[in-house]
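Recall that a protein's primary structure is simply its ordered list of amino acids. Everything else, from secondary elements to tertiary packing, is in principle encoded there. The following example makes that idea concrete.
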Amino acid sequence: MEVAQTAGHQVNNGYDTSFYSTNHYILIMTDAYNVSPAISSTSPTDAEVAARLALLAADHASIITSDWSAKSAAVLSAVSARS
């Protein structure tokens, strides 16, 4: 089963998302840019994207989304271990 949640909603409100990982759900966190502190929704730096990926993977995200279409394929295909 998959669950899609706005990343800001989950992380900014301190929700415990470990349930999804523990129970083998695919957790899709949308609007990854909107987690505090917010970063650009269209043109963040590569370092900001990497940090956001690591943050959300630590919060059990399987997939993160944002409108970062201008970023390189290497950045957009980055993978981080989910906690």
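Strands lie at 2-6, 26-30, 63-64. The chain is about 35% helix and 15% strand.
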